Amino acid sequence: MTRMPEAAIGEEDEAGSGRLGFWAKVRSKIGEKMSYALADQVTYSFGNMIVAAMFSRQAGAREFGMYILTQRSLDVLIQLCNVFSWGPYTFNLPTIAKGRRRLYDGSMVAQQMVGCAVSALLLWVAARWASTPERGIYYGVFAPLILTSAGILFREFTRRLYFARMRFREAFWTDVATVVLQVAGVAWLAAIHRLNVTAGLQVLSAAALLVSCWWLLEEWKRIELRWKANWEDLKLNLQLGRWLFGGNMIFMISSQCNPWVLSAMLGGASVGAYAVCESVVNIPRVALTSMQNVMAPTLAQSLADEGKAGLRARVKQMDRMLLLGSVAFAAGLAIFGPWVARLIYKSVPPNPRMLLIVLALNFVAFAATLSQSYGLTALGRANYAFYSYLAGLVAQVALCVWLVRMFQLPGAAMAMLFGSVVVLAVRQFYYGLEMRRA
Prior knowledge:
The chain has 438 residues and is mainly α. Helix content is 87%, strand content 0%.
C-alpha cells in the first residue's frame, strides 16, 4: 500500500526535532498544510459566492430563492454524511492497522454510495410532498436535487477524504478544478439565457462528478470492498458519529436561537439588522474553518504516533495559534467592522460597533480552545465535547430573552457570548480531567 503522507512527515519531524525552534516546528508541521487548507476554503467559499451571485443577477428573484433553498437542503445532507461517516473516518483512520486500510477505505466508498441513494430517496419523498399547488415552490427545490445531489455529495466526500489523509495540496487543486468547471458551466447557462435551478444543479453536479472520477481513477486500486468489513466499519463509525451528530445539532440550535428570539420580541426587521453584523463577523470564519480541517486529522495522527503527550503538545500549539488569531480578527472587526457592514449592506443597525464588539468577543471565546474539542474526540471522548456544547446552549437560552429585553440587539449577542464562555469552561474542565488520567 502507498505510504500515507503523515508517515513521511513523522520521519521528518524526528530527524529535525533537535535542530528546529518552536515556531520552525510549527511551520514545518502545520504551516504548509494550513496554507493549502486556507487556500482550499477560500476557493470553495468564493466559488459558491460567484455561483450564487450569477443566480441572483441572471435567473430572477424566484429562481434565486429556490437555488438558496437547494443549497440549504444540501447543507443538511452534507452535515449528516459528515457526522456519521466523514468525521468518524478522520478520527478512526490513524488507529486502523495499515494492512486493513484498504478495507476501511472500501467501506467508506460503499457507505457514501448508500448515503447518496438514501439522500435521493429522501428528496424524492420531499418532492412528492411538495407536488401540490400550495407547495409548488418547494417542488422546484427538491425535485431537481433528486439526481443531482448524488454527484455533489460524492464530490464533497472525496474532498473530505483528502483532508482526513492530510493531502491538502491535492484537496486544493481538485477544488480549483471543481470551482472552475462549475462557474464556467453556470456562466455558459447565463450567457445563453437558460439559467434556472434545474439546469444550474445539473451543471454543478456534472462538474463535481467529473472531478470525482479523477479521484476514483487514482484511488480505486487502493480500495477493497467486503460486506462483512462494511458492516463492522459502519458500527465503528456510528460509535463516534452519534456524539458528533448531537454536537452539530446543539450548535445549529444555538445559532438559530437568536434570530427566532429577536423575531418574536423585536420584529422581523431586527433579524435582518442582527444578520448584517453577524455576517461581517463570519468573514474570518473562513480561516477558522480551514484550521478545523487541519486540526482533526493532525490531532488524530499525533495521538496515534506520540500518545497523549504528543496530543497535549499539539493542542497547546493550536490553542495558542487560535487565541492569537481570533484576538487579531476581533480587533479588526471592532475597528473596521461598521465600515465593512456599510460597504456591503449600506443599511446597518444603530450603534453597530457595540453589537460587532460583542459578536467579535464571542468569536474569540468560540475559537480560543476549540482544538480541545478535537483532542477529546481523538481520545474517544466526544461525549465530553457534546456535554460542553449542551451546557453552553442551556446558558444561552436561559439568558437570551432577559438580555434582549434589557439591551435589544446586543443582548442577543451577549447571551451567545455567555454560552460560548460556558462551553469554554466546561470543555477545559473535561480536557484537563482527561489529560490527568493515566
